[in-house]
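tokens incoming
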């Protein structure tokens, strides 16, 4: 009872601090790869965000001390601070989501080069249907990132964001737009780089196929080439996929370290 009586005067401050941290943490987790997948139940995602915000509360108390007095002053000030933190978390999570789309781009290019674009499955992270091979590669990339601890760097970037984007102060829209542009262009470049062996294979195979069609026009090249293209493409993918996923995880780690640098 004595502990509860001592805690009671500080209870509004503690709850307000937790709510402000949860606004940014929960908004970012809504967009982070893996954490935001529809396969994870909504209640589980909510509990993870609440627990993570509670765990970060002691670390971020110094950063939040500037705005906690303003938040306790009135409901309008608290609503304004919650909105700013929510938008900041959404923008940070959106940047990470743009970065992770590199593996979806690579999977789509690889599926096109192999010839497996007809079988489509729903991919919540891409916001629509993608080829089955692309979905497999994106899940494998997420598992590799999780196994190498890249998600810890995402959470670390979230903690460091309080030093770069102070609570209560809206980040400049121009800076976030430039950051999003760099993330989108970097994702395109990385996706093309990850699929480069299959792109070269597709060019060489189709050139050889065209030459064979010119030399032997009486042969039904399509019926011979389609199974061969799939078999050779999958064999090349099996050889290069490990290196591609490791390179993607390293790139994601570098981007996470540079996100709030």
């Amino acid at each position: 009872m004595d502990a509860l009586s001592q805690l009671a005067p500080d209870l509004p401050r503690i709850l307000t601090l937790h709510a402000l941290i949860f606004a940014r943490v929960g908004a970012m987790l809504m967009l982070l790869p893996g954490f935001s997948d529809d396969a994870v139940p909504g209640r589980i995602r909510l509990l993870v965000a609440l627990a993570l915000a509670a765990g970060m509360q002691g670390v971020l108390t110094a950063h939040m001390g500037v705005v906690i007095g303003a938040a306790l002053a009135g409901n309008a000030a608290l609503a304004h601070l919650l909105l700013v933190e929510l938008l900041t978390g959404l923008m940070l999570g959106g940047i990470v989501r743009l970065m992770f789309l590199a593996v979806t781009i690579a999977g789509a290019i690889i599926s096109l080069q192999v010839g497996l674009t007809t079988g489509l499955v729903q991919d919540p992270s891409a916001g629509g249907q993608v080829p089955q091979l692309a979905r497999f590669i994106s899940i494998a990339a997420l598992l590799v990132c999780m196994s190498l601890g890249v998600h810890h760097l995402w959470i670390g970037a979230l903690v460091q964001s309080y030093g770069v984007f102070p609570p209560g102060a809206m980040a400049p829209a121009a800076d976030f737009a430039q950051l999003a542009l760099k993330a989108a262009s970097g994702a395109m470049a990385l996706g093309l780089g990850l699929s480069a062996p299959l792109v070269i294979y597709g060019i060489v195979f189709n050139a050889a196929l065209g030459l064979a069609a010119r030399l032997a026009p009486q042969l039904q090249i399509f019926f011979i080439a389609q199974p061969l293209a799939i078999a050779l493409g999958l064999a090349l993918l099996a050889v290069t996929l490990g290196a591609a996923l490791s390179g993607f995880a390293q790139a994601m780690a570098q981007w996470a370290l540079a996100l709030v640098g």
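note: The chain has nine helices and two strands.
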